[in-house]
Amino acid sequence: MTPETLAYSIGFPLLGIFLGLVYKGMDRRVSARLTSRIGPPIRQPFWDVGKLLLKETIVPENAVAWLFNAMPIVSLAASLTLLLYIPFGVLEAPLEGYGDLVVILYLFTLQSLAMAIGGFASGSPFSSVGAQREMVLMMSYELPLATVIVGFALVYRSFSLTTIASTPVWSMVGPLAGIGVLLLLVALLVVTPAELAKLPFDIAEAETEICEGMLAEYSGRNLALFYLSDAVRGFAMAAIEVVLFIPFTLSYIFGLNLSGATLYIVEGLWFLFKVAIVYILAITIVRTSFGRFKIDQASKIFWVYVNIIALLGLALVWVGV
Amino acid sequence: MAKSTYYIPVGPIHPALKEPIRVEAEVEGEKIVKVDVKRGFAHRGIEYMGMKRNAIQTLYLSERICGICSISHPYAFVLGSEKALGIEAPPRAQYIRTVIAELERIHSHILWLGVIAHEMGFDSLLFWTWKGREKILDLLELITGNRINYSMYMIGGVRRDLKESHIKAIREAIDYYWKFTEQMKEIFLSDPVYKARTRGVAQLSKELALKLNVVGPVARAAGLRIDVRQDTPYDAYADIDVKAIVPQDIVGEVYGDGYDITLVRLYEIEQSLDIIEYCIDNLPEGKILAIPNYVALLNKIKKTQGEGIGMHEAPRGEVIHYFKYDGTRDGPAVWKVVAPSYNNINSWGPALLGAEVADIPIVVAYIDPCMCCNDRMAVVKDSSGKVLPYDLIRKKAIEKTMRIKKELGVRK
Fold first, then answer.
1. Which helix (H) or strand (E) holds B166?
2. Which of A48, A98, B64, B357 is the 20 to 30 Å CA partner of B274?
3. Does residue B184 contact residue B266 with C-beta atoms inside 8 Å?
């Protein structure tokens, strides 16, 4: 491990937490504007985390205490590790070479799993129902997600994100495979809210049904860690979508000849802008314009419709490449 | 593997149910296998208080039985009281009462549509419907002076007249709500998520609805043609010939579920708009109070012996007030209130049994429950099941207060 990697591995998580909270604030603001409200200031998530960290952390009497307390840490650790695999604009991913898309898939799963285990460990009926729902939902959306990743591996003959980010996918494929990639994009966009536990698939946290489900018993520092993990995960998911489907850099589009610090700053800001657009389109607008599905309906949507779309996309990519 | 079931307690504190009632659901996975509904968390003794006051004070007290139906209870009160006293409101007052009651029905139904959307996580729809509801609250404020608890009705008439400017504002609001209801119909009835969440949920058959004595929109959604305005018309409804709105008239089939009740409520808003239009077009001239002097009214009450029942079709169903004046004091000797939620809550048990956990909020919200209308009486039993007398409970309550005061060190 070089000192550079070490610096990255400390700097990236901090940056990721900051960006995650900023995007969360933006999300709340835009959502409020869409429903004719004013909404909180963008810095509100920072205040929320600060307040949660100051509050008392309560462990329920019949909870498995060590598991209950460990799961928020696992969840946050998984989401912070996730950041180290994402190429940030033209910057290479710090852990490039140590893992790829499959690891990312596992890290996403690990977070959901940590929340589910935390829910089961809390010993509350609401949390148990929420955790059961989360497991069912996870089983439903993992297959389309894996299909998308396999589709990309077919195009690039590689699972590495940096390889994928270096050349836009649209320039690698013909018209037929292009349609296939488009279908994969649709499948990934449907999976996104489920992966991030947002409406219409926030079934595991349904506030009006089971009082935030898995998080019902969490408070104080533990809840703050889950909150941070959720924020980082939202940013990471949008960033991965950008890397996979719109990796066009400014230099690539306009043929600019930037170099040095200017290149990194301009491309970094351009990347953040793209992530913001994807975040608002795929998460904010979707979560504002849908009601919540029931768990069996959500399962059906993923197992039948989204799977058909993803597998069709995969087949087209396979034929086209 | 042994079957594992556990209880999900909904209420008295739960985000799906911001009202003091408890639903204990025993669930197996997602399926509810046993339901128990417990009432009696909010006994306020309003009837008892009413029997200690004079009739006009009791009228305002009745308005505070429920916050949303703040016209329904006074309406039933004045109708019952007028029957007991043998007086009748002037025609103009009758028409004004009808206008206010129908305006309230519109705002209550829009409120319900927002609540049901919220219960399925559809918060944008909640914000949008409640934004539309603001206009009618402003209108009610313009006419009566208050957004809620209007203090508009009086035994033998109304307290405020409808001016030309009010009628103009009502006409504007009616135009607005025709368009708004059209939009709401489009959204609620064609949205696939809404349909997926409400079709088949909280289903009541016609026979079961009859057996459970449900009233109001819940009964009408199950296909029963029950409506106080149609069955025993009063005030301006007698001139209008109101027909109960049932799903078989609208779409030709009855499921008796959450979707049908949405249908019924949406079309009832349109019916209310029609009634208001008729009333302000045909508003009779004349005075608005049968006995304008309140002292004279109280004197008449003090000399009257008689009883009467007032019935009004509240947005949630039938409200009944029973009255008895015994000629000794200027208030009711007996006052008995029956609110619609009491009957409608009966439907929770059958509707929840066999449903999923995700259906609980919708089943709970679909009758538009109102707990404060509900708890009319409290029976206290000791551990052996013997009912304790009032004096003993009172003595025990005082003893407990003294003990707590002593423990906390509060001086007398």
1. helix B164-190
2. B64
3. yes
B313 and B397 share one domain? no
Distance from C-alpha of B232 to C-alpha of A91, rounded to nearest angstrom: 78
Contacts of B125 in chain A (CB under 8 A): 291
DSSP, residue by residue, B253-285? ----SHHHHHHHHHHHHHHHHHHHHHHHHTPPP
How far apart are alpha carbons B177 and B276 in whole angstroms? 12
Interface membership of B7 toward A (CB under 8 Å): yes
Is residue B211 in a domain? yes
Q: Which residues of A touch B357 (CB under 8 A)?
A: 129, 209-210
Q: Write the DSSP string, B323-356.
A: EEEESSSSS-SEEEEE-HHHHHGGGHHHHHTT-B
Q: What is the pLDDT of residue B3?
A: 57
Which residue range forms the structural domain that includes residue B396?
380-412
Q: Domain containing B271 — which CATH number?
A: 1.10.645.10
- Looking at the structure, do residues B302 and B386 belong to the same domain, yes or no? no
**B385 and B368, same structural domain?**
no
Contact A319, A183 (CB under 8 A): no
List, for residues A255-288, the tens digit of each pLDDT value. Answer: 777 677 777 787 788 888 888 999 998 889 888 8
Q: Which of B15, B118, B358 sits opposite A294 (nearest CB)?
A: B358
Tokens of B87: 């007086």
Encode pLDDT of A51-90 as tens digits. Answer: 999 988 888 888 888 888 888 999 988 888 888 888 776 6
Mutate to test the interface with A, among B7, B24, B30, B359 (most CBs of A within 10 A): B30
- DSSP sequence for B84-104: HHT----HHHHHHHHHHHHHH
Compute how many other C-beta atoms are within 10 angstroms of the C-beta atom of residue B162: 19
Q: B304: exposed, middle or buried (C-beta count within 10 Å: 0-12, 13-18, 19+)? A: middle
Pairing of strands B305-314, B153-154: unpaired
ipTM associated with this complex: 0.80
> Roughly how many angstroms between the first and final C-alpha of chain B, as a whole number?
61
CB-CB under 8 Å, B117 with A202:
no
Buried b (16+ CB within 10 A) or exposed e, B74-112: bbbbbbbbbbbbebebbbbbbbbbbbbbbbbbbbbbbbb
Tokens of B21: 């009632």
Judgement on whether residues B398 and B254 belong to the same structural domain of the protein: no
Residue B37 lies in a domain: no
pTM for this model (two decimals): 0.84
Query: Is B16–A126 a contact, with Cβ atoms under 8 angstroms apart?
Result: no
Q: Domain check: are B112 and B256 in the same one?
A: yes
B389 in reach of chain A (CB within 8 A): no
Q: Are residues B317 and B179 in the same domain?
A: yes
Q: Which tokens in the block code for residue B98?
A: 């009808």
Q: Is B228 annotated as a binding residue?
A: no
pLDDT tens by residue, A157-201: 777 777 777 777 777 777 887 888 888 888 888 888 888 888 788
Asked whether B323 and B308 are in contact (CB, 8 A), the reply is yes
How many structural domains comprise chain B? 2
Q: Let me know whether B248 and B141 are in one domain.
A: yes
Please check the confidence at residue B1 and state whether its pLDDT lies above 50. Answer: no
Picking from B160, B23, B18, the residue whose alpha carbon sits closest to that of residue B92 is B160
Question: Is the predicted pLDDT of residue B2 greater than 50, yes or no?
Answer: no
Find the helix packing angle between A3-34 and A65-83, rounded to 10°: 100
For residue B351, which of B338, B375, B367 has the smallest C-alpha distance? Answer: B367
- Are B271 and B392 found together in one domain? no
Reported as a pLDDT band with limits 50, 70 and 90, residue B411 is low
Supply φ then ψ for residue A100, to 5 degrees: -150, -155
Contacts of A294 in chain B (CB under 8 A): 196-197, 356, 358-359
Residue type, B226: I
Give domain status of residue B225, yes or no: yes
